[in-house]
Specification:
Helix content is about 45%, strand content about 10%.
Length: about 500
């Protein structure tokens, strides 16, 4: 919000974010939520296209339902079926309807369970509060059993079927695995909406803020930058002539303006004529660079422009380590040229006595070969953790195509049940307790991401490939439900060795 305020010269606070923006909800419904707090996990991204939140209260439910409690209590699928019109919504009494109508007959929040205990089982408010305390004792489910018989007996006495009573208790047991109060979920949902609005309407500021907050969240800087660029955000390299310590916003080009204007909703307070900003990577992204050194660079630059690497190093009082880190990261390109030339010039800098500090020493420039695209890419990841060049798999694509490996874009268009093979860089491995031994893997290539499901038996059989592969190949079966696509793995392959070829002097990676 501060970044937006500074760039737009219009104060922007949480309360200034327009409510119920249709474009923001359309983005959420696609599961396009990389970096959005509370709905950026694999489970949330898979749920969003199914639940299709259309308003704020839908987000309140979304935040609460993808939790161990509702999952273990068997509440998720009944709610989705009812929301999609595949299952009728029925209530055993008007009192129960009053408690559960807003969640289609499924108890999702702790408050609803307490209300049910009172209206359907005859609990006193004090007993209901004891039940709440037992539910809130996360992972200590033993305390819930003492409520089973009173709950079931109370419901039977009031004419409710035994099956309904037992179902309610099973759902209460699920809350022992961590369920949400409604007020808690509503507070989270506000952060979800504001974050999602920023990602949709101000993607450059959103990316910049996440980069400045690292390490945090599910995603590394490389994934955040890749996602921003796929959404049309221009990202500029770290540069000693332009970068601050933090990542910042700079005026963007016309292409960015067109993209931003197309994203603006009728409810947006921003003017379509304002150009979309570009992201300037900060010096904080350069691995090994000291913050004190970076701050001296910025201060010296404010006094007068740098005239060369020697002048830069002397005025910023940088030591050898900081200079080498900047050269290796390509942050001296504006002063010294490509990485090889920058490193050569940095290596020749010596501490001169004060009487010779301003002496100009003429040396014949050395014509060093520029790095190959692959060498630059490898160096980017080593020194910045990301690249602004082509994706590594774009360079390897001819080889991968000959191996008959589909891109993420091709795979995500396949029909349910198709057999497919693909490969990508592993960006995420998740092994949630609620998944019965399933491991969820996300892989990325130059066209997008693939969500992979690895069942326990395969994970045990191919443990090394699952845990050690940086570039993973998968042969499996497409599982599609609407917009949600998974590749259920049948076999895993470790293709990490192919990445090593990118750093060779050869310009042919094929």
């Amino acid at each position: 919000l501060d970044l937006v305020s500074d760039y737009r010269s219009v104060p922007m606070r949480m309360q200034d974010v327009p409510a119920e923006d249709p474009l923001t909800y359309a983005m959420i419904q696609r599961g396009d939520t990389t970096g959005v707090i509370h709905i950026e996990s694999r489970a949330q991204m898979a749920m969003l296209p199914r639940l299709k939140p259309r308003n704020f209260y839908d987000l309140v439910i979304e935040v609460a339902i993808v939790r161990p409690g509702p999952i273990q209590g068997g509440m998720v699928h009944p709610y989705l079926r009812r929301r999609q019109g595949l299952e009728p919504v029925a209530y055993p009494s008007a009192a129960v309807r009053q408690v559960l109508e807003r969640t289609l007959g499924v108890p999702i929040f702790q408050e609803q369970v307490m209300q049910l205990a009172v209206v359907a089982a005859g609990f006193t408010p004090g007993q209901a509060d004891q039940l709440r305390r037992s539910m809130a004792a996360w992972r200590r489910k033993g305390g819930l059993w003492k409520f089973q018989q009173p709950l079931v007996d109370g419901m039977r006495t009031r004419g409710y079927p035994e099956e309904f009573a037992q179902q309610i208790f099973r759902q209460i047991q699920g809350f022992g695995e961590y369920g949400f109060p409604e007020s808690h979920s509503a507070s989270f949902a506000l952060l979800v909406y504001v974050s999602a609005w920023l990602k949709c309407q101000e993607p450059a500021a959103f990316c910049t803020a996440l980069l400045n907050s690292q390490p945090m969240g599910f995603y590394a800087p490389s994934q955040l930058v890749q996602d921003a660029r796929r959404h049309g955000v221009e990202v500029r390299p770290a540069d000693v002539l332009a970068s601050e310590w933090d990542c910042t916003l700079e005026p963007g080009g016309s292409s960015g303006e067109e993209i931003h204007s197309s994203l603006l909703s009728p409810h947006s307070s921003l003017l379509p004529t304002q150009a979309a900003p570009a992201v300037r990577l900060g010096l904080r992204m350069v691995k090994g660079l000291s913050q004190a050194g970076a701050e001296r660079i910025v201060a010296a630059r404010c006094d007068a422009p740098f005239t060369g690497v020697d002048n830069f190093a002397r005025r910023a009082s940088l030591d050898k380590r900081d200079l080498e880190c900047l050269a290796a990261a390509g942050a001296l390109a504006s002063l010294a040229g490509h990485r090889h030339e920058a490193f050569w010039q940095v290596s020749g800098i010596e501490a001169l006595p004060p009487v010779l500090e301003d002496t100009v020493i003429d040396e014949t420039p050395v014509a060093l070969p520029s790095p190959t695209e692959g060498e630059n890419l490898v160096a980017d990841y080593a020194t910045l953790g990301l690249t602004l060049g082509r994706h590594p798999l774009a360079l390897l694509r001819p080889r991968l195509s000959r191996m008959r490996l589909l891109t993420a874009e091709q795979l995500n268009r396949l029909a349910h049940g198709r057999i497919a093979r693909t490969a990508g860089i592993v960006t995420c491995r998740q092994h949630p307790d609620t998944a019965s031994g399933v491991t969820f893997v996300t892989i990325e290539d130059e066209t997008g991401c693939v969500n992979v499901v690895v069942w326990l038996a395969l994970a045990q059989r191919q443990r090394r490939e699952l845990l050690a592969s940086r570039l993973m190949g998968i042969a499996g079966t497409i599982e599609r439900e609407g917009m949600v696509v998974h590749l259920v793995a049948g076999r895993l392959f470790d293709y990490t060795s192919l990445l090593g070829r990118l750093g060779t002097r050869s310009r042919d990676f094929h």
